Amino acid sequence: MDGFRWKVGNGKLIRIWDDEWIPGKSFFYPDPVPANEFPDDLVSSIIDQQQGTWDSEKVERLFSAQYRVLISKIPLSSPPKEDSRIWKDSVSGSYTVKSAYFWIRNKQQSKIDLSHGSGEDNSEFWQNLWSPPTQPKVKNFLWKLCKNILPVGANVTDWVETAGDECTFCNLKETQMHALRDCAWIRRRWQGCEVENVYKLGENRTPIAWMKEVWRVCSIEQIQKFTSILWFLWKERCNQKYNNHKLEEGDIIPRAMSWIDSYLAAQVSSLGSTVSGATLSDSRIHQWSPPPVGFVKLNSDAGVFQNGGVGFGCVLRDWRGAFVGATMKKEKGSCSPIEAEARALVIGLVEANRRNLSPLIVESDCQVLINKLRRREEDFTELGSWCDEILRLAKVNEGLSGSQVIWSFAGRKKNRVAHWLAHSGSVWDRQVVWTENPPLSLLVLLEEDLGRGPCNRG
């Protein structure tokens, strides 16, 4: 069924080689093996139904290392639930009209990309495109450029049959690359500019290939200047074309540079006043705070490493700020950051329940996850399964004291001990637990959180 994929329950409805069921960055189908090697092709056949876990021997035999890692990260519910179909283009797995619109639009764009010889996954590039510290209008312009929807002559002709596709300035066909790279009007204005070499990266490239090359070889400062000047030139071109408003040729680049400097100065000023205000009003605003009397606070964090692997860290402290316990774990493989944060919470709750630590405040620096748990939002994806497991463990903890688990969001600086634990594991696939006598490096951080460490002394 187009647009949907399977979420694994008991695996009895899902065909291993023909259905979409393995969540990854951009794929859901496994690579098939010869049918005579494995005639039973239901996912249920690679699940140990009694233990409620994946049959590691079969998974090892059937799948490459890449897929073994992904499969091992798919949570299996206990008791087993039926398999379900979920909408793969929404965060929660729920079908909405809005998500269907974007799915159709992306599918059409994929056809356009393929027709231009580009079937690659550009998800990382899109994230990078929205990240430079430039004005939102510049980012919107770049997005339209890469999607080939700027109102140049060639595009307008496709939208309105009676429109012409000639360039106003040289009477050649006006495509996006003509308007921004090839036209004599634009070439004259780039001459002598300090980022002219960046402009020249566009030779013989499509718009998206041009931008990808810019992001690949240029510094953040160069990207910032180049993209802002490109937008400013586009704006001036449109002003001349439609409003008969004309700047002197030598004034455009200086005005663009002045506009960039003013924007950056405003950002720095705004940031500085915010930080200064926070510092003056409350010097402890970013410091960890103990829970109320009688409570234990669990802080958790996760780290997804660039070279592969995921780290988890959890620390437990009482209302006096006294160390109660900590755990850290490092695993091979990968998963999304929010899923890693959810798994860190599972590890922490398991440890708290094992030691009967209740009532409990659970604190994480992942606000999206904390909000989901507070609202108990319905989520049909694998993340939803981890949230269900977190809430199940929380219910067990509530049974120990009769008090509800409290979900709390904390910024990174309030969560730095758990952050350190998540990023400091040195041994793969082994969980380390401390119930007393933490190592010196951890003890120093714990003391600093209470304002007693070396960083807090005058």
UniProtKB/TrEMBL annotation:
SUPFAM superfamilies: Ribonuclease H-like
Gene3D superfamilies from the UniProt entry: Ribonuclease H-like superfamily/Ribonuclease H
GO molecular function, one term: RNA-DNA hybrid ribonuclease activity
Start and end residues of each Reverse transcriptase zinc-binding domain: 95-190
Bilayer-spanning residue ranges: none
Domain of life: Eukaryota
Record-linked CDD domains: RNase_H_like (cd06222)
Residues forming coiled coils: none
Residue ranges occupied by any RNase H type-1 domain in the UniProt entry: 301-424
Pfam families the UniProt entry points to: RVT_3 (PF13456), zf-RVT (PF13966)
InterPro entries per UniProt: RNase_H-like_dom_plant, RNase_H-like_EbsB-rel, RNaseH-like_sf, RNaseH_domain, RNaseH_sf, RVT-Znf
Name of the featured protein: Uncharacterized protein
Species for this entry: Linum trigynum
